[in-house]
Design a protein that fits this description.
Blueprint: E1 10-14, H1 18-27, E2 33-38, E3 51-54, H2 60-68, E4 72-75, H3 82-89, H4 98-104, H5 107-116, E5 124-127, H6 130-140, E6 144-148, E7 158-161, H7 167-173, E8 179-183, E9 189-197, E10 203-205, E11 209-214, E12 217-223, H8 229-245, E13 250-258, E14 264-270, H9 280-283, H10 288-296, E15 310-316, H11 317-333, H12 338-346, H13 353-356, E16 361-365, E17 376-383, H14 387-403
Parallel strand pairs: 1-2, 1-4, 2-3
Antiparallel strand pairs: 5-8, 6-7, 6-8, 9-10, 9-11, 9-13, 11-12, 12-15, 13-14, 15-17, 16-17
Length: about 400
């Protein structure tokens, strides 16, 4: 560990959301300091950091000042501009490096990387014009999914095409920008594998995690996934290929489609901790965030064993909207307490009693200043004797928050 960055040093985080927040919290017991580079003040990560640098990502003078204040830099989302990452890398170690960032930021680069490394994916084609889209639809067939090459997440920047006649409308809907067309795949389940690679090339993973989505946003994750041993071996081999080929030092998640015949198809990668891995905070000896801290600081990977089966449910801003609507309805009914009720409607949040009264549940809130539909505001985690039981606990608890029962 001659190149290790030991406790007491400062970790810099590009990005200021919940992933940076949870990294900071994981680093605290090790006495690491955290500096965050954020485009806005009082961010979720900035609230728990030692210092928050507030500036635009393209303010490279501010970026360099940030990098000079830390011993190592990592990032908590993959859409950090490359120029920003490169400015940091010129001053201190940047982990993971810019190579994986470049691949993960562009769906075409990502799929071509998979193909170059003989990693199985859905059929795909690059699309730079309406004519190319129409030709690719003739080749790949319908249904298919048209996705913008950059800047898409949680279902944004993509549209399903059910018939070739829909090509013109789809091309206009995505803004007539560089895209990738992907063949439609019928799969049994979506699974992911969060893993980490240290400076010595040692890899540790968290088994496969099973994920369900709602409106293209991760809804519930359970782990360990109930899959045959050969499926787990496939995933391990492919994740090792990704981490090694991109020389990743840090945490990374690979998302897969699991087909009914047992084949795994790579969907995408995220070179950071992942929403599906949040359950590792309670479920595993070493959480994905401690693992990120360890690896970017040049320390050995930690033990990823599960203590118990686990399930995680996302809490979206829709939940806050329900509470606000209920409060507004009550305000209209109760003219006598108009002022008090109006104030509570502005500052409303869910009643967490149903969660906090259950010792099997853990609540994580991200400190975001405003809630709106689809925004990830927090999550619930439950541990139980089985994955099925843990899933029932988190789903029931979230349902009670939604209904108030």
């Amino acid at each position: 560990m001659k190149h290790a960055i030991f406790p007491g040093s400062t970790i810099g985080v590009l990005g200021s959301g919940q992933l940076g927040r949870m990294l900071a919290l994981a680093a605290r017991p090790f006495s690491y300091h955290i500096h965050v580079f954020s485009p806005e003040a009082n961010s979720p990560a900035g609230q728990v950091a030692d210092r928050e640098f507030v500036a635009a990502y393209d303010d490279l003078d501010a970026v360099r000042e940030f990098a000079q204040s830390v011993n190592v830099v990592t990032y908590e989302f993959e859409n950090v501009p490359l120029a920003t990452a490169e400015a940091c890398a010129a001053i201190v170690p940047l982990r993971p490096g810019t190579q994986v960032l470049r691949v993960a930021q562009n769906r075409l680069c990502e799929k071509n990387f998979f193909a170059d490394n003989r990693l199985p994916t859905v059929p795909f084609a690059s699309v730079h014009s309406l004519a190319e889209l129409q030709a690719s639809l003739a080749d790949i067939g319908c249904p298919a999914v048209l996705k913008t090459a950059v800047s898409g997440y949680d279902g944004k920047g993509q549209i399903k095409i059910n018939h070739p006649d829909e090509a013109v409308a789809a091309w206009q809907a995505v803004g007539e920008v560089d895209c990738i067309l992907e063949g439609w795949v019928t799969f049994e389940r979506e699974v992911s594998m969060v893993a980490a690679r240290d400076v010595n090339g040692r890899i540790a993973h968290y088994n496969l995690i099973e994920n369900s989505h709602h409106n293209h946003i991760l809804d519930v994750s359970v782990a360990p996934a109930n899959v045959p041993p050969q499926v787990l071996r496939q995933a391990e081999a492919m994740v090792q290929t990704v981490l090694t080929a991109l020389d990743v030092v840090g945490a990374l998640c690979v998302e897969f489609f699991l087909c009914s015949d047992g084949r795994l198809l790579l969907n995408e990668i995220a070179p950071r901790p992942h929403n599906s891995g949040h359950l590792t905070i309670e479920a595993c000896v070493t959480s994905q965030f401690e693992q990120q801290m360890r690896t970017v600081c040049g320390l050995p990977v930690g033990d990823t064993s599960y203590l118990r089966p686990a399930a995680m449910a996302n809490l979206l801003g829709d939940l806050w909207d329900v509470q606000r609507r209920d409060a507004e309805a009550q305000r209209k009914k109760d003219e006598r307490n108009l002022r008090q009720s109006a104030k509570s409607a502005d500052n409303i949040s869910p009643d967490w009693t149903a969660v906090l009264n259950n010792p099997q549940l853990k609540l994580h809130l991200y400190g975001k200043k405003s809630a709106h539909p689809g925004r990830k505001m927090g999550h619930l985690t439950a541990l139980a004797d089985s994955v099925g039981e843990a899933e029932k606990i988190v789903r029931k608890a979230r349902r009670r928050l939604e209904t108030g029962d």
